[in-house]
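Quick start: read one record
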Amino acid sequence: MKNILFIIFLLPNLIFAQGKGIQFVEGLNWQQVKAKAKIENKFIMIDCYTSWCGPCKVMDASVFPNDTIGQIANEKFVALKVQFDEDENAGKLKKEWFQLSKKFEKQFNVTGYPCILFFNPDGEIVHKIIGLRRVPGFKKTLETVTDPSFQYYSTLEKYNKDPDNSELLYQLIQVSKDADELRKEYIQNYLAKTGGINSERNAQLLIDMTHSSKDQTFPSLTKDSLKINHFLGEGKAEEQYRGIIYFEEFQNTLGRNSAMGYYINDPNPDWKNIQDSLVKKYPERIEEIMDYAKLNFYRIAHQWDKYLPTLTIYREKYKNSISDKMKLEYIGAIAVESKDVDQHYLKSLLDWGEDALKVSNNPMDQMNYSVLLYQTGKNGEALEVMKQNIDHVPDLKYSVYPEYLQKMQLGEKL
C-alpha cells in the first residue's frame, strides 16, 4: 500500500497524460487505479478501445479533448484508457492490462468499441456504454452515471432481488438499452406485468426502444400500431416504422453525408430497381415504403415539381397515418418555397396541418405557420405569429425572417 501511495502522490508526471480535456491516468495497474479511486472517492472510467476502431479515434479527437467533458470527468472520475487488442510492442504493464481486458471483455459482455466501463469508488462495475458518443450524449452520461438509478449493473442487482417490482423492471429496461444489454424478456415481462400497451408510458416505451429493424420491439410498430397511436397520436407508429426503413434502406443509397451536409447521389434514382431489391424483404408494405421514400427524396433534393403532386397523393393515401411531426416537416419544406406555389395549394396545406402548427413549440414551425398565413391572405394573424416568435429563431441574423416581417408590415409580396 505504501508503494501505491508513493506512486500516486509523488510521481504525478507518470500518472497524467498532458493536454486539455480528460486527463487519463497512465503508468498504474488495476490495483493502483482502484486504490487511487478509493482514496479520492471518485468513480473509475475505463475507455476500452482497439487499434482498428474508427469511432474510438473519433472520440479521441473530438470528445475526450472537449473542455466541458474534461471538467466533468476530471472532477468525478479516475479515467484511463485500455487497449483491447494485442500490441506487439507492449511493455510489461500494457501486457498485464491486456490480460485483464480479456477478462473484462467476457465478464462485462464487451460486444463492440468504443466501450466505456464505469466502476464505483470501491472498484465495482456499475454501468457501461457501447458505441460512439458525441459531446452532448457523453456529457449526459458523465453527469448521470454516478446516480444508481442510471446504472445498469446496480439496477439489475436490485431487480434480481425484487423481480416482481414492475417499476424496477421499467428502470432496468431504460438503463439496459444504454448498456447494450436490453433483453427481449425484460420488455415482455414488463408488458405482461403492467397489462400490455394500455398506457401512454407503455406505448412510448416501445417507441423509445425501437430504433432499428433488428430491435426486438420493431414488429410491434406494425402489429400494435393502433394501440400505439391511440396513446401517442395519429401516425406515431408509422412515423417510427417508415423513418427506420428509410434510414436503413435509402439514406446511404440516395445520398451521402459529408462535413458540408447531405448530398444527393443521383437526382433521378432508379426507383424500380430499388423496389425490386426490397420487395422480398418487405412484401406486405413495399408500396408504403416506396411512397415514403420518394416523398422524402423529392423534399431533400428540392425537386418541388415532383414533391408537390407526390405530397397531394400521399396526404390522401395515408391520411390516417401521418403524425403531426411529419406534417410539420412536409409543411416546412413548402413554406420555404411558398412564393412559387399556387395559393389554393397553400390553403389546402394550411387546412391540413394548421392544428399541428398551432400547438408546436418550435419557433421555426411558427415562422412557417406565419408565412403560410400571410401567403393565404391572413395578414393580421401572420404578423401576430411572426412578432411573437421571431426573437426565438436560432441564428436570426442569417435568416430571411426579419426581411419577411418588414414586408408583412408593409403588405408587400414575400
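Residues 1-18 have pLDDT under 50 and may be disordered.
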